[in-house]
Amino acid sequence: MPFSLPLFAGLSSLGGCNWVLFNSKGSVGLQERDLIILCTGLMLIVVLPAIALTFVFAGQYRASNHKATYLLEWAHSEAVVWGIPLLNVVTLATIVWKSTHELDPYRPLDVCPDQNA
After folding, report:
1. How far apart are alpha carbons 58 and 17 in whole angstroms?
2. Which residues does UniProt call coiled coil (predicted)?
C-alpha cells in the first residue's frame, strides 16, 4: 500500500505522453518500430537475468550468511556466462545489418505500379 500512491502518480503523469515510436506511419516507419522492439526484447534476455541474479547473489553470499559456500571452480559455467550474451550480440548484429540495408534511405521503395496514384 505505501508504494501505490507514488506508482499511481507516476503512471498518471504518463497519460499525456505521445509515444512517437509506437505511432509510426508508413511502411519504413513500421519496420523501424518493429526492429527497435525486437532488439529491445533480445537485449532484455541478457539484462533481466543479470539484474535478478545480482540480487540473488547479494542475498546468498552476504557476510551474515554463514551457510553459503563459495566454490572456486566455476569453469563449467563459463560457456553459459559468455556464450549466451555472445549469441545475443551475434543475433542482434545480423538482424540490424540486414534491416539497415533493407531500410536504406537511398534505396528505392518497393511500390507496386498501381499504388503510385
Report:
1. 37
2. none
What is the Cα–Cα distance from 50 to 82, expressed in whole angstroms? 12
Instruction: Give the whole-angstrom CA distance, residue 28 versus residue 111.
Output: 12
Confidence of residue 115 (pLDDT cuts 50, 70, 90): low
As a whole number of angstroms, the distance between CA 30 and CA 28 comes to 5
Place of cell 533493407: 102
DSSP 109: P
- Confidence category of residue 89, pLDDT binned at 50, 70, 90: very high
User: Strand, helix or coil at 34?
Assistant: helix
Q: What are the residue boundaries of the structural domains of the chain, listed by start?
A: 27-60+76-106
Residue 59 phi/psi, 5-degree rounding, is -75, -40
Question: Rounded distance, CA 94 to CA 24, Å?
Answer: 24
pLDDT in tens, 32-50: 999 999 999 999 999 999 9
